[in-house]
Amino acid sequence: MRPRPPPNYLAGYPPDLVAPVLRLIEQDQLGAVLLKKYPLAHEVRTDKALYDYVQGLKGEFMRNVGPLSKVAFDGKLRVIRQALGTHTSISRVQGTKLKSKREIHVATVFKEMPPEFLRMIVVHELAHLKESAHDKAFYQLCCHMEPDYHQLEFELRVYLSHLAAGGRVLWSATPGVGAFFDEVE
After folding, report:
1. Residue (of 6, 17, 150) closest to 78 by Cα position
2. H or E stretch including 46?
3. CA 174 to chain centroid
4. Which helix (H) or strand (E) covers residue 152, if one does?
5. Which residues of 138-171 are buried (b: 16+ CB within 10 A; e: fewer)?
6. Domain extent listing, the chain
7. Are 34 and 170 in contact (CB under 8 A)?
């Protein structure tokens, strides 16, 4: 059985945007470019910290959306669903009342990324609480919460392409691990 090729994270983008990225990957310089723009990883490391972070954004932009039952990093997302984040809404009848439970799961790969990338994925999942489809209204809501949403999504896909091409993890919560800390030492 032949191994599957890595996903093409830049599919659908115009060639004039993709070509420079591919050149940087070939020259093994993409990591340095990303580190220059995003030098540090965020500080959100636990599920509780992630819950608080998401609640802060939700409170700022989406107060009228129902409460979240759970927010957590999920190590199985990329393996099982090929997703970087998921949202679920489950409604159950309890007696005469309808109870709803909403959850957001973020792939653990986001534990060690820049704060901008974490914000982008959280904004994406929060927007799904109001807009289920990836349509114009969905992306307008994403851009309302994060004006640079589209640029951040592209740069996240660039980083994922870097990893898929065999590049090293660039950010790490542990000093001494990852390219940024190796360059500093």
Report:
1. 6
2. none
3. 20
4. helix 149-164
5. bbebbeebbeebeebbbbbbbbbbbeeeebebbb
6. 15-180
7. yes
Q: What is the DSSP letter of 113?
A: S
Structure tokens belonging to residue 185: 């030492």
Across 145-156, average pLDDT: 96
Residue 165's contacts (CB-CB under 8 Å, 6 or more residues apart) are 6, 25
Task: Report the alpha-carbon angle 140-83-181, nearest 5.
Answer: 95
Q: Which CATH superfamily is domain 15-180 in?
A: Metalloproteases ("zincins"), catalytic domain (3.30.2010.10)
Q: Which amino acid is at 55?
A: Q
pLDDT exceeds cutoff 60 at 129: yes
- DSSP, collapsed to helix, strand or coil, labels residue 124 as helix
Q: Which two tokens stand for residue 124?
A: 């994406």
Model confidence pLDDT, tens digit, residues 88-109: 556 666 677 766 778 888 988 8
> Which residues sit opposite 71 in a β-bridge?
104
The answer to whether 107 and 84 are in contact (CB under 8 A) is yes
Residue 184, classed as helix, strand or coil, is helix
